[in-house]
Specification:
The structure is a single chain. By secondary structure, the chain is an alpha+beta fold. It is built from 20 helices and 22 strands. The strands form five sheets. It has an eight-stranded mixed beta sheet, with helices on one face. A five-stranded mixed beta sheet has the order 9-10-13-11-12, with helices on both faces. Strands 17-16-19-18 form a four-stranded mixed beta sheet. The structure holds adenosine-5'-diphosphate.
């Protein structure tokens, strides 16, 4: 029978496992048991709606069978099993992010540092750290046929028909011979397996059973001289459950340390990084539930795939009823992962019914409050950590503010932080509290990078007055402010496009007069620029710059840049109405005015185009003809 090859990346991982010098090889058992437990979860869930399964909750179990003579450990479950195709797809390639991430990290120059291995859910392949041959005999629930998957490691695997009476999976690991460095035979000892189950898999929700021999005293029927009964000692084997089966979230807070919760998170969610927050809830009331939630320490690799959709698993009294419950909490908190277990949720429930389930809504609302509370606490106690969190997941909160016409904005707005000068990030509340009395509005500048926003020429006038500016770096940020409308009664003011409100009545009047005086120049510049701008006007916003670009009628340059990569032609063709603003106090503008008025049209046209390109550059726009610009600048010398 032909040997099939592992996919290239799986082969590399496998090589690592086989040749692993990692001292913590023992985690293989945790991985295999956790797969067995997941498989039972799936069949148990199916049994809620499918009478054909024929198993009650108490019938599900995992068996560990040790055979010292042939050097095998078998982990047997009566879970959902795998079809031939599933065995091929699941065991022939790196299955999920955990293994994959592990492999990537190993390739990124850390190849020598195998100590990180235990932080990953490395999965099925870890069996090869202790076994020189792995055989999987499995039968998918609903199928009459069983299959055998077998591999000695990197040279490939075979799949053949097999025999198995009921659904489930046997993973048979043939243990490597002992070597000088490692006594693999220890894994065939009952005491060792018991210890490993206690250490890593105690909270597995299904009984892990093993035959444990112990001495038993039996009466022989004869009597001692003093008349007391005579005993004989024989070895009897009892099939015992060796895990306590109490899931970690069911244990009382005082019995479980944060470290244990973190270890649970890392294993369950295949994350090598500690979560930035652990939230434990034990609620009793109209709806009772226990929850163990985590806020990940970083954005997962598949942040934008469907995989990401809600990481909360729903249990009812220890039975998993939904792996990813999307309707529990809103998208803005969907970065939260973990478990919710409530006896008040009916087991026999479908996804559709869950959507309208009142209990679930109550739980969801409460959990959202808890998550918010935890984030507020982090913001107060450890700002650096919060900033890190915000870097990862701030975008979810911002989207939440804009979602459903701003329905959740009041709930979320105090969690938003924005960049100001000095590399600081503040909430809008903090910004307003720090405002000097004379400041009337919240000023913001928007561009595609922080550095660029900070160097916009319009900043100077605001900063000169001692007012702080919020620097935005995405069109989403602008949409957020638009949705919020104001903060504590203070309006938002775009320093590029909006009236800053700095001019006195007299200054306004003077500006009007100056406008009339410069009319000829302004009209001329507009004509020369030939449609590139919709308006040319004077400004007093620029302190030491000759010109700047702004926009009118709603669409800003940032939005234009954003839409340029949009999905439809209509979106991509969206253009902002550009306004060229000229600083009449600046020498360059005064020269331009003189040229226009004295009829030196060629020089005037040159200067006008040059000023417009300079303004475009400062606004971060691509310039159409850089060579022409350089030529224009050349004429100055
Ligand atoms: P992971 O558990 O991270 O998905 P693994 O490499 O441990 O990755 O397992 C790969 C896949 O193989 C699992 O997702 C599951 O679909 C399947 N699998 C492994 N063990 C079993 C089992 N005992 N019963 C049914 N399916 C299993």
């Amino acid at each position: 029978m032909a040997k099939k090859q592992f996919k290239a990346e799986s082969k590399r991982l496998l090589d690592l496992m086989i040749n692993s010098i990692y001292t913590n090889k023992e985690i293989f058992l945790r991985e295999i048991l956790s797969n067995a437990s997941d498989a039972i979860d799936k069949l148990c869930y199916q049994s809620l709606t499918d009478d054909q399964v024929g198993l009650n909750r108490e019938d599900f179990r995992i068996d560990i069978i040790l055979d010292k003579d042939v050097r095998t450990i078998t982990v047997r479950d009566n879970g959902i099993g795998m079809s031939a195709e599933e065995a091929e797809n699941n065991l022939g390639v790196i299955a999920k992010s955990g293994s994959y991430k592990f492999k990537n990290e190993m390739e990124e120059e850390k190849a020598e540092d195998i100590s990180i291995i235990g932080q990953f859910g490395v999965g099925f392949y870890s069996a090869f750290m202790v076994a020189d041959e792995v055989t999987v005999i499995t039968r998918r629930y609903g199928s009459d046929e069983a299959v055998q998957w077998q591999s000695k490691g990197a040279d490939g695997y075979t799949i053949t028909p097999a025999q198995r009476d009921t659904a489930g999976t046997d993973v048979i690991m043939h243990i490597k011979p002992d070597s000088e460095e490692e006594l693999y035979g220890t894994y065939l000892e009952i005491w060792k397996i018991k210890a490993l189950v206690k250490k890593y898999s105690d909270y597995v929700r299904w009984p892990i059973k093993m035959d444990i021999p112990h001495q038993e005293r039996v009466e022989t029927g004869e009597k001692n001289d003093d008349g007391s009964p005579k005993y004989d000692y024989t070895m009897v084997t009892e099939n015992e459950t060796i895990n306590s089966m109490v899931p970690i979230w069911q244990r009382s807070k005082k019995d479980v340390t944060d470290e244990e919760c973190i270890a649970f998170y890392k294993e369950k969610h295949h994350d090598s990084k500690d979560p930035c927050a652990v939230i434990r809830v034990n609620a009793e009331g109209t709806v009772s539930y226990k929850a163990l939630l985590f806020i990940p320490g970083e954005q997962s690799d598949n942040a934008f795939s469907a995989e990401r959709k809600s990481g909360i698993t729903l249990y009812s009294n220890g039975v998993m009823i939904m792996e990813k419950c999307e309707d529990l909490i809103h998208d803005y908190f969907e970065f939260a992962k973990g478990i919710v277990d409530s006896p008040d949720l009916s087991l026999n429930i479908s996804r559709e019914i869950l959507q309208h389930n009142r209990q679930l809504r109550v739980i969801g609302q409460n959990l959202e409050k808890k998550i918010k509370g935890e984030l507020e606490k982090m913001m107060k106690d450890d700002r650096t950590k919060y900033e890190e969190f915000f870097k990862n997941f701030g975008v979810d909160l911002k989207c939440g503010v804009c979602d459903e016409y701003g329905r959740y904005k009041d709930f979320l707005k105090d969690l938003l932080i924005f960049h100001t000068s000095d590399d600081k990030q503040v909430t809008l509340k903090e910004y307003v509290e720090a405002m000097p009395e004379s400041q009337q509005a919240i000023y913001y500048a928007s561009s595609d990078t922080l550095k660029h926003a900070m160097s916009l020429p319009q900043c100077a006038q605001v900063k000169d007055r001692g007012f702080e500016i919020i620097y935005l770096t995405s069109p989403l940020d602008e949409m957020v402010l638009e949705n919020l409308q104001d903060q504590d009664g203070k309006r938002f003011c775009n320093i590029v496009t909006d009236d800053l409100g700095f001019e006195t009545e007299e200054e306004k009047k003077a500006a009007e007069e100056r406008d009339i005086e410069c009319r000829e120049m302004l009209d001329y510049v507009k004509e020369v620029l030939d449609g590139a701008v919709t308006k040319v006007k004077l400004t007093s916003k620029l302190v030491d710059m000759p010109c700047a670009l702004s926009t009118e009628d709603g669409i800003t340059l940032e939005m234009e840049k954003y839409f340029r990569h949009g999905p439809s032609e209509e979106m991509r063709s969206v253009r902002a109405n550009r306004v060229l603003e000229l600083n009449p106090e600046h020498k360059a503008v005064q020269t331009l005015k003189e040229c226009v008025e004295s009829g030196d049209k060629e020089r005037a046209a040159n200067l006008a185009k040059m000023l417009n390109t300079m303004a475009e550059l400062m606004a971060g726009c691509d310039i159409e003809d850089p060579a022409a610009f350089v030529k224009q600048v050349g004429t100055l010398f």
